[in-house]
Amino acid sequence: MTELSLLTWALVVAALVLGILAGHFGWGKRWPVSLKQLHPDYLTGLDYLVTEQPDRALDMFLKLMDANADTIETHFALGSLYRRRGEVERAIRIHQNLLARATLAPEHREQALLALAQDYLRAGLLDRAEGLFQQVSEVPRLRASALDALRLVYERQHDWQQALGAFRHLQHIKAAPPLKVAAHYLCELAALAMERGDAMGARQLLREARAQSSPLPRAALLRAQIAQTEAQPQLAVRLLRQALTEAPELLQEELPHLLELVGPQARDLVLVELVAQAESRDIGELKRLVFAAIAAGLVDAPPLRASIERVFSQDATLKAVWRADPVQDAHTVHEIGALLANAEKYRCIECGFSGRNFYWHCPACHAWASFEAYAIVKLR
Q1: How many other β-carbons are positioned within 10 Å of the β-carbon of residue 133?
Q2: Over the stretch 218-260, which tens digit does the pLDDT of each residue have?
Q3: What are the backbone dihedrals phi and psi of residue 248, each rounded to the nearest 5 degrees, phi first?
Q4: How many whole angstroms separate alpha carbon 61 and alpha carbon 321?
Q5: Tens digits of per-residue pLDDT, 335-356?
């Protein structure tokens, strides 16, 4: 067992013992008792937990739950633990067993329904989770938790209109996540409108999105796509430049698109402007531009030569292969460009998920607008 796993189980065992004592003797009383006064099966169950025999531990605790109503909260804690560990089938079994009790108090039944819905969500059983969350959302004390979970279900289903509706309900009870979440739902709906050819509807949705959260580079990008479709290249360039100013991490994705819009004659002028903008910030921004340019095959562009040399000569890793020899260094830059084409270019700042594609919605942790430009180049 790993050190982290041992620590986790130790904390859980302590919590279970406290819960058991509280259930038997009451929190408001002194506890002039020893573990010998507990039912022997409790200690057996704890022993199964510590020795990594979760199925036996679960059987033991479920047996005790049938015999003693005072241990319900302890079983909720155990079910939550199993869910967090990814052992969702065990969590479901605990909560279904609770719901099967005819004598379960209404507040415990509602809590068990919420917990079971969370189990289903973790297991990817979205239809089952949705139905239970809708049911629990009618309970005032659990409404915020149920609505927020329901919002996540709709996100997984890509039902953006329903997700936006859940967000509005959460706003009404002052329990909504940040406004940027609603802005991204509106951007998703705008993208769908664009696919249907409804440019007017998409523009309206993007206006609503910007009203929710500003700056909003994603809205500028979508609006630039509409402008390009409607043969308004100058507007498209302006909007794309705005998006890149607000979110430089988009350079790797959008630099080729921008240069395609301005055309070959204006390419170098735009690159000069981008270099000046990056240098006005810090070396990190310049490095981001250089890597985006290399990935786009622009290593020979005159406005970038000095920037490439500066980045390679100052970077702790890259300077090891920089020889200040024009021929050799040009070859090195081309090789790194080839490596970048297959590198993991982006990383989620919330969970660390990385990949070659940019996502507005992290596939791993489901955070919004959490991707940053990132590349690992292994030099041999």
Answers
A1: 27
A2: 999 999 999 999 999 999 999 999 999 898 888 888 999 999 9
A3: -60, -20
A4: 61
A5: 666 666 667 778 999 999 988 8
